[in-house]
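Q: I'm writing a short explainer about Oxygen sensor histidine kinase NreB for a general audience and would like to include a description of its predicted shape. Could you first generate the structure from this sequence?
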Amino acid sequence: MTAARRRLAAALLPTAGDEGGEPLSARGWRATVVGMHVISAAVWTLAVASVLSGEVTAPGEQGPVLAVLGGLALSYVLAGAPAVAGGHPRRALVHLVVVVVAFGLLGWLAPGLLFLLFLAYPQVWFVVQGRLTGVAWTVLLAVASAIGPVSGAAAGSTPLEVLRESVVSLAFSLALGLWISHVLRQSAERADLIEQLERTRSELATAERERGVLAERERLAGEVHDTLAQGYTSIVVQAQTAAALLSADPDAARERLAVIEEVARDNLAEARAVVAAFRPVALDGSTLVEALQRLASRFARETGLAVRVDTSALDGLPALRTDEEVVLVRGAQEALTNVRRHAGATAVVLRLARVGPQVSVHVEDDGVGFDPSAVTASGLEGLRGRVAQVGGEVDVASAPGAGTRVTVRVPGS
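A: Of course. Here's the predicted structure. Afterward I'll give you a sentence or two in plain language.
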């Protein structure tokens, strides 16, 4: 096929989805199609009544004119209506050819029926739903319907007058058709945009759910590390100590077993709190100071170290959010766990202080110390992440042979 023929085919052949598509919702488009069918039936019925009354045809021409109208009706039912609904380019082509031929015949046989162009022109644009194709078929329809009246010069009109009326009708039809095409194209673009927005919203919702799942996993991991894992570690250590003391010092062994039971009960309560996302058991029904004192007391019983709680620099505890209190308690727990595992200390001071609205917990030991720049502790890194979520900070001050001080600060209010 030559380039010229391809261009001609592109202009005349309707294509599915050419520059548009259904401009409304499925329900709205169905209502539009049904409206087009009703209007087509009403206008066609009016045309048949005009022919039967003899108002628009000469004697003896009623039969051929009714045959042309019958062909139009049959074409619309079999090809035009499915094409208006969309997605039937071959049927659209058949109906357009029938419409052009039929109006060419009506121009010769019954020019008075050319009011049917009022229906035919919009049908062209709804069938093709494309600018270039719509212009081509509108021009063909206008030329075909004007040949008869111009050649026969209807009674009381000169060919020039008939031609002028045809040109005006064509211009109006093109303007209407281009507007219809523009509306269809804009509606299709809006439909595509809405679909994209809905798809983006769905993707964002999925991403938000995944982010929430990840955050919950991180929360659970942090809670397990800060509470359950430390409790189980304590249970293991106490069980080993109790086993070693069982024969030599039964009373001391029973004390260790009591500590094991206490830690196990606390761990069970902590597990329930983690699952339910409650505040730590240490804070349940207690103030922050009471929770830290209880934490220090149990740590002393577990390790046998001298643990002192210092609140002299507190100067009144400001109102703290629950998450800030949780961070301070978890910070103290993590620091004490590191003392147990690594410090080799003989004494520990747990200090609660306040500077303005800022509240801090310091855990200081007299152990072996270490070089903070050379050691990365996963527990402290996790604690830094937790503290950062509430706008706080963690400081670790230590040196080999000089003990360690871990400070957790929260901004307060």
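A: For your explainer, you could say: Confidence is low (pLDDT under 50) at residues 1-13, 16-23.
Q: Perfect, that's easy to follow.
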